[in-house]
Amino acid sequence: MHFFSAAAFLLVFVPSLPTEAGKCPRVCSCDSTKLTVACVGKNLTNVPPTIDEITVKLDLRGNNLQVLSRGAFMPTPYLTHLNLQRCNIITVKEGAFRTLGRVVSLNLAYNKIDILYQESFDGLSSLKELYLDHNRVEEIQPGAFTQLGFLNMLALTHNQLVYIPNMAFQGLNNIKWLRLSHNSLNNLATEAFAGLFTLSRLSVDHNELQFFPTQTMNRLRDVTRLDMSHNPMTYLGEESVSMAKLTHLYLNHMSLQDLSDQALSQAPRLSHLDLSHNQLRNLEPLSGPKELASLNLTGNPVYCNCYMRPLREWASVRGVKLLGACVGPPHLSDEPLQAVAPLDMRCRSRGESLKDEFEKDDESTGSTPPTTKPKLKVKCPVNCDCDIEAQHATCEGRGHSKVPRGFPTKTQLLDLRSNHFHYLPANSFPGTNQVVSLHLEFCKMHEIESGAFRGMRNLFYLYLSDNDLTSLDPGAFAGAPELTYLHLEGNRLAQFPGSAVALLPNLFVLHLERNAISKLEPTGLLSSVTPKLRELYLTNNTITSIAKGALDSAFLGTLHLDSNQLTEMPTHALSEAPNLEELSLSRNSIRWVGANAFQPISQSLKRLYMDQMGMEKMSREALVGLGPRLKALTVRGNQLEELPDLSPLTGLEVVDLQDNPLLCDCPLLPLRRWIENVSLEVTATCGHPPEIKGQKVRDVHVFTSCPESVSPPDEVVVAPRPPKVKKPKPSPSKAPGVKARPAKHKAKPPKPTKNRPQKKPVAPKVTKNKKTL
Ligand SMILES: *[C@@H]1O[C@H](CO)[C@@H](O)[C@H](O)[C@H]1NC(C)=O
Ligand SMILES: *[C@@H]1O[C@H](CO)[C@@H](O)[C@H](O)[C@H]1NC(C)=O
Ligand SMILES: *[C@@H]1O[C@H](CO)[C@@H](O)[C@H](O)[C@H]1NC(C)=O
Ligand SMILES: *[C@@H]1O[C@H](CO)[C@@H](O)[C@H](O)[C@H]1NC(C)=O
After folding, report:
1. Res. 298 pLDDT band, cuts 50 70 90
2. Is 415:396 a contact under the CB 8 Å cutoff?
3. Fewer beta carbons under 10 A from the terminal one: N or C of the chain?
């Protein structure tokens, strides 16, 4: 059957059906009826060039291809299935698959791919399934997937992603299932999943998410199944889950200690909720889901006293199936929740019930073991909570003045924030070499001794935000070489801590906002010191000068210098930052931007923010070199009367020119025309001459009298009027304070969705239910 249909297909579409059957490469085996070729495990370093052109399935598993170069599959344009698993592939060059417009399934699993470039998957216009699991992907470049408009399933599991940037999956217009399990994700940008309107299933289990990413998830309008299990979350607050169509939610194997009864109030369709293997001791009836069918509490230390009764009653009334068993009180231990009558869930007296509540920690070791299986005695410092299974320990806000010792050796997340350590001596964390994430925010620390973190070989995230550090010892981070994300914002550092971070060869993101840094010195702070630094945040310091060479870095992509005291463009300092993509200079006082100000970074820059700088003039040549690559430009709230020509910036998705006193006269005509011509919402207002002050550039008549303003009549003469509907640009990304929307909706402007800041994760609190029943 297959043979006939395939043959018929070929008779129609292949002009000359090759007759010779001798085209099978020596190391391969070919089936000329099924049109398959398999060259498996042959250590090939190239795709064999003599494969028959009519081949539809090509299996190259287990070779040694290393680099897939442009046009690598040119000889086999009819392929529908291509298997490249375990081929030692490191790089997929732009255009490697360009000739494969019929491939529906591509398997690149178990290779060594680390970056997904913008055009890596160009040409795969029929692709339905893409397997990229078990690689080393740590970066997805913008536009990596834009050509994959038919893709249904994308597997990126078992990679090294720590962060998903805005719009990462743009272009996946038919995606149904996105699999991101088994990465190291600890942060998802608010618009990370923007545009995925067809997505129905998302897997982000086995990652490092410490908080439910509410804002990010509520962009996913059609998702029905969400798997978040195996992430180190401790608490789910009100309205954490705001997903209108969600039916299945997996929050098992996390570290939940508490869950607000309103946590799911914005998930009305939820039918299956898996909370198994958390640390929930009791739970209130959940508001929101109207059709909840099952609630899995297996493996939680559920204490079946009067506090559990409302949930039990609610479950009976609503027909919610409860899974799990009671761990206590003793006469109910091991009893399935579903089998306990609500009236048996009692607190014998107020005193006893309080005792029940507060003696929970003694139970596992005390005289009345709650279960028949003896529990392992949990090693945990006094006045801390350790969760062996979740590999999580917290002593948050317990008034410790010294770092407690004796955490379980497998602890991966250690939360010590809001204590009063003042000073952190050397070797403060013995026996914690499994800790990945260490929280020391708000600990009133003013000094960290050399070697304080020694031995923390797996430390990846370190939070030292909001302390009183004025300087850092050069050896402060000695012995923690994996440190990748370092938070030092909200201290009083007077200098860039160059020598301290020089011990961190893997440093990727450095937060130094809200310090007192006044200068960036020329000592090659970045390239020699932190070769992998990708994002540097210096917002809200007191920087007045940046020496040439201070920002030299071949790798730096994001630089925030906003809210400082710069008075000049730091052009010279950026001459060796050839990969800078995002630069924020807002809220400095740079009055004047000269010619070629961005020339050194013009080949890489994508987002440029220059709001509220008191800028009075931009040279006509200020933006020279910037072209289609630039996606965002903001100059809001300056004193500009004129603007340079923006028409070379054909890739703009976000532009903000508001609150500038533009001089609406003939020199501004090019801007006016540009505004009318682009499919972007651009608001620009006249500040002069006085009689039209406050009117929109787009609406005023002054330009009709300009020489050479022979424009089409409907553009200029009749105003105001919405410009013609144009093809919308790819959906614009949003940046704070920036409006952008496709012109399509211009007839009646929709209210721009308020860009609420991501709800800051509330420090997890274990609230005790104080109600007396
Ligand atoms: C595969 O090829 C490489 C060189 O291309 C060679 O060093 C290696 O020994 C080969 N392995 C096998 C199993 O043939
Ligand atoms: C409940 O959770 C347990 C433990 O994770 C699991 O084995 C079981 O299959 C779950 N039951 C249902 C109905 O989901
Ligand atoms: C800068 O930091 C100071 C002190 O933390 C704060 O009061 C101020 O609001 C911040 N300014 C901006 C623009 O963030
Ligand atoms: C208007 O846009 C078109 C294409 O989008 C471009 O070719 C043309 O030069 C633009 N005109 C002006 C005045 O910017």
Report:
1. very high
2. yes
3. N
Residue 295 has a pLDDT of 96
pLDDT (mean) for 406-417? 91
Task: Give mean pLDDT, residues 164-172.
Answer: 91
What are the beta bridge partners of residue 352? Answer: none
Please answer whether residues 665 and 689 qualify as being in contact, where contact means their C-beta atoms are separated by less than 8 angstroms: yes
698/694 Cα distance (integer angstroms): 12
What is the pLDDT, as a whole number, of residue 14?
39
The first and second tokens of residue 379, run together, are 């090693």
The structural domains of the chain, with segments of one domain joined by +, span 14-160, 233-339, 379-491
Using a pLDDT cut of 90, give the percent of the chain over it: 53
Structure tokens at 670: 């090019």
pLDDT of residue 35: 92
Q: Decide: 230 in ligand 2 pocket, CB within 6 A.
A: no
Q: Which of 387-391, 451-455, 577-581 has the highest mean pLDDT?
A: 451-455
- On the question of pLDDT at 16 being above 70, the answer is no
DSSP 8-state code for residue 431:
T
| Residue in 64, 86, 87 to alter for ligand 1 test, most ligand atoms within 8 A of Cβ | 64
Question: 379-491 maps to which CATH number?
Answer: 3.80.10.10
Residues 436-464 as b or e (16 or more Cβ within 10 Å = b): bbbbbbbbebbbbebbbbbbbebbbbbbb
* Residue owning the nearest CA to atom 13 of ligand 2: 296
Helix (H, G, I), strand (E, B) or coil at 355: helix
**Residue nearest atom 10 of ligand 3, based on CA coordinates:** 540
Count of all residues that appear for the chain in the document? 773
* Pocket flag, ligand 3, residue 563 (CB < 6 Å): yes
Q: How far is the CA of 677 from the centre of ligand 4 (A)?
A: 6
Look at residue 567 in the predicted model and tell me its pLDDT.
Answer: 95
Query: For ligand 2, is residue 171 a contact (CB within 6 Å)?
Result: no
> Can you tell me the distance from the alpha carbon of 411 to that of 390, in angstroms, rounded to the nearest whole number?
8
Residue 22 pLDDT level (bands cut at 50, 70, 90): low
Residues ≥6 apart with Cβ < 8 Å to 581: 557, 558, 604, 605, 606, 607
Interval between CA 89 and ligand 1 midpoint (Å): 15
- 755 pLDDT exceeds 50? no
What amino acid occupies position 289? P
Would the CB of 323 count as within 6 Å of ligand 2?
yes
Using alpha carbons, select from 271, 337, 273, 274 the residue that is nearest to residue 301.
Answer: 337
How close is the Cα of 537 to the center of ligand 3, in Å? Answer: 14
- The pick from 540, 587, 613 for probing ligand 3's pocket by mutation, whose C-beta has the most ligand atoms within 8 angstroms, reads 540
Cis, bond preceding 670 (omega within 30 deg of 0): no
Q: Which atom of ligand 3 is nearest to the CA of 539?
A: 14
Model confidence at 282, pLDDT cuts 50, 70, 90, reads confident
14-160 CATH fold: 3.80.10
Question: Given this model, what pLDDT does residue 2 score?
Answer: 45
Cα gap 576→371, rounded to integer Å: 64
**Which residue type, as a one-letter code, is found at position 596?**
N
Q: What is the 3-state secondary structure (H, E, C) of 482-542?
A: CCCEEECCCCCCCCCCHHHHCCCCCCCEEECCCCCCCEECCCCCCCCCCCCCCEEECCCCC
Of residues 298 and 527, the one with the higher pLDDT is: 298
Contact 450, 474 (CB under 8 A): yes
The reply to whether domains 233-339 and 379-491 share a CATH topology is yes
Q: Which fold has domain 233-339?
A: 3.80.10
In this structure, which residue's CA is closest to atom 1 in ligand 2?
296
Could you identify the atom of ligand 3 that is nearest to the CA of residue 514? 2
Residue nearest (by alpha carbon) to ligand 1 atom 3 = 43
In the predicted structure, residue 460 carries a pLDDT above the cut 90: no
Ligand 2 center to 200 CA (angstroms) = 22
User: CA angle at residue 493 from 492 to 497, to 5 degrees?
Assistant: 160
